[in-house]
Amino acid sequence: MVSSPKVRAPAYRSFGRSALLTLPIALWSLLMFTPTFRSSSRNLTIGAVAAILFMTGLFFMMMRTGTTYRWRRIFFVALGFLFPIGFITTLIAERGTMSIPIERMVSGDTPFCFMVTPALILPAAFARTVVFPGSILPSATNPHSIAIMIGLWFALTLVMGKAWCSYACFFGGIEEGFAGIAKRAKIRKLDPRLRLVPWAILLFVVVVSAAIYEPVYCMWLCPFKTVTEFPAVRSVQSALQFVVFVVLFAGLVVVLPFLTKKRTQCGFFCPFGAFQSIFNKINLFEIRINRDKCVDCTLCQTACPTVALSTESIREGKTLLNCMKCGACVDACKKDAAVWHLKGTEVGVKPERARLLFLYGTWGLATMFGGSILANSLATALHLMHWN
Amino acid sequence: MATGPVCLASCGPVVLPWMLTQPQGFKRHGKRLAIFLAGRFAGYLLFAIVAWSIGLAIPSSLAARPWVYGTVELALAAAMLVYAAGWPHPRCRLVDPEETLVQIGPKVRRPRSGALPLGFLTGINLCPPFLIAAVRAAQFHNLGSSLLFFASFFAATSIWFTPLLTLSWVRRSQSLVTVARMASLLLVGWYALSGIRVLLERISYG
Fold first, then answer.
1. Residues A289 and A330 placed together within one structural domain of the fold
2. With A163 labelled, which of A68, A146, B81, B125 sits at a CA distance of 20 to 30 A?
3. Can you tell me the distance from the alpha carbon of A91 to that of A86, in angstroms, rounded to the nearest whole number?
4. In this model, does residue B108 exceed pLDDT 70?
5. Number of domains in chain A
């Protein structure tokens, strides 16, 4: 169903060498899921085994073929589509509906979502107030507390930078799935200024959240409320909020990705993605264009799912700040000009080593974070199918 | 002074994107921020007079609050549309590096910054600390005390606006100005919808 962008002929590694390179990830996966094996739930054990095989298998293919994008995408799309299954099922089992009544929101029963992080900073700094109706520390009813989620996000961000958006964000996978359905883009010309919109939304969300002491993105603008939870529809305002969520989801996550073959919500809307871009500045890994090899064919620009390359940036041998390090441009380049790069080293010298270093850190965390979501969601799916 | 951060947060949606659309330079920013604060001060003084003159009639003035609130929000939306989002100002059109956009209207050599009207409108905006101050001012026996109280309130809360001058050092790239204008447009929508909602509720429920 999911089609790849134009990918160069893969440079295969030997089976043994690929297996050897995969060994650290296989061991890490086993370590991550060891506690699951002690669980009495058979479904969870099956989910964990499947997640280990899935994550290790995909990493092996990355090593074997020397390509990144298509294997990462399989994981990412699976994460995007399985996450709501686990999340919605849990909500329905607990409260019988996806909607959350306002009184439960106020009492702090809402699981914390990392999307709201940038809006928390100003009110926390100036008024010592957390503008999210969740609990700061974990509790029996709400293990996804603010402190744990922010800690987890920060640890992942230090390692990944903006690659969070391509390896960890369980929302991005849904639109990447829809972006892969059509063989060719129906809409090809996109205004490059659209990539500035997430920054404008970020500025809007931060200042308005600080002014009204409310997570304005969660209350009004989050497309993913449609597939997670949303305020119970009890008034004209909550009905309007629900309509906004559904319209944004249908437009930005389903229709536009299908028509453009781009991740339109991530590239042209998500304020958290813009915030995450700032961390690309301090992250050690990046993608560079080796000008000695580049022939300005712009294949990389076409392949980029978030419009993170422009003619000017290619000329300068760089990607733009919003690069998610998904590897699409590197895999699409036929001249090996687009390369993985470790900051402080010479561009184009041992790029595979930079890729390996990046992937070990990133895939390891993706296994820990996304892998556990996959395992739990698979277990839930098996439970729903009465596989006991 | 303790309410300063809340004042800054309340005015933030107006002042922050607007300042980012202004040209770079400490002196220029200082001057515009001073004019903005002067506008805000004028709003405060006007409100001090109103607050004192209504005096004990506060309960009836509370009924008029939605009208003031809704109208000020709509006026803020209009002012931001012109001065921050830049419509239909030719200088403030969305920046296009390739200059493919058609210029609308005559070219203005020295465009107005809008510091005074924006400052005035934020000055009369009914934010929570301002309402508390208004209730206190209404309890004074003479107009002088009320004016002095609001002048002190203004001076103390304005200190919190001085960090905004650091924005003058942020390099103004085309991208940054475009982002600030796009954010201003979103805020125009926010204030307009908020104002319309308040007025509709007032009309519907009395």
1. yes
2. A146
3. 9
4. no
5. 3
